[in-house]
Amino acid sequence: MSMILSASVIRVRDGLPLSASTDYEQSTGMQECRKYFKMLSRKLAQLPDRCTLKTGHYNINFISSLGVSYMMLCTDNYPNVLAFSFLDELQKEFITTYNMMKTNTAVRPYCFIEFDNFIQRTKQRYNNPRSLSTKINLSDMQTEIKLRPPYQISMCELGSANGVTSAFSVDYKGAGQISSAHQRLEPATLSGIVGFILSLLCGALNLIRGFHAIESLLQCYLLVYYTGWRNVKSFLTFGLICLCNMYLYELRNLWQLFFHVTVGAFVTLQIWLRQAQGKAPDYDV
């Protein structure tokens, strides 16, 4: 019998489970799929926004949007169009019910567990397709899946549920750390955004006066993207800003020099404070 078995809502950046359906089935296959749920939740930031993982008699489908992923487990014969239509409904309801500030600042697992009520109602409707009243929308979803089919995750990409690291994992880990090419930074704070704008302003003022602005642009880059030796580069960039302003001492008044150096120091501090995200905690998804 084709049916949806469970569903979860997970934050993409760290794999924090925000809500999940209550599962009553405790079969061996379900227990194994829960392991895959955990493994996928840790890799969501590196995966496309629409994916499918086939695990024997079960399929795991998920979509990601605005930093939140909606994941479901169904039998392998459950129609794809219904599966992704189900996830699309979860996404629309969750975005309507909870704003991004709440999801970004959540610290406890399952802090939106009340969303389970909507998951259960929607799951019951989709397990009885004759009761669905959105057949017109299903045709739209079918067209969308044909134009942009979900990415098929292979088991070798995911790695085994017993903890054996796969080739996919090696691509993202080196000496126990995620490589800089795929590392994500912590969410930007208000002070970080202000620093970014001020750094751009300093760069624009330098260009208007006919000076180079590469040090300001480099600070903006380091504030937004993760690179190797990021903190060292930020301090060297600040040193370059100080040297350039010393060179321009006769062309600027003290207030201008103070403004440029202060902004440089402030942005350097923001780069130091905005560190890379650590490894996703082992939440019990």
Automatic annotation (TrEMBL):
Q: Enumerate the subcellular locations listed in this protein's record, separating them with semicolons.
A: Endoplasmic reticulum membrane
Q: Which keywords fit this entry according to its UniProt record?
A: Acetylation, Coiled coil, Endoplasmic reticulum, ER-Golgi transport, Membrane, Phosphoprotein, Protein transport, Transmembrane, Transmembrane helix, Transport
Gene Ontology biological process terms in this record: endoplasmic reticulum to Golgi vesicle-mediated transport; protein transport
Name one cellular component (GO) term: endoplasmic reticulum membrane
Specify the Longin domain's residue ranges.
8-119
Q: How does it sit in the membrane?
A: Multi-pass membrane protein
For this protein, the parts annotated as crossing the membrane are: 188-208, 229-248, 254-273
Q: In terms of one coarse class, where is the protein primarily found?
A: endoplasmic reticulum
Q: State the function annotated in the UniProt record.
A: May be involved in vesicle transport between the ER and the Golgi complex.
State the family it belongs to: Belongs to the synaptobrevin family.
Would you tell me the protein name for this molecule? Vesicle-trafficking protein SEC22a
Q: Which organism is it from?
A: Rhinopithecus bieti
Q: What is the lineage of its organism?
A: Eukaryota, Metazoa, Chordata, Craniata, Vertebrata
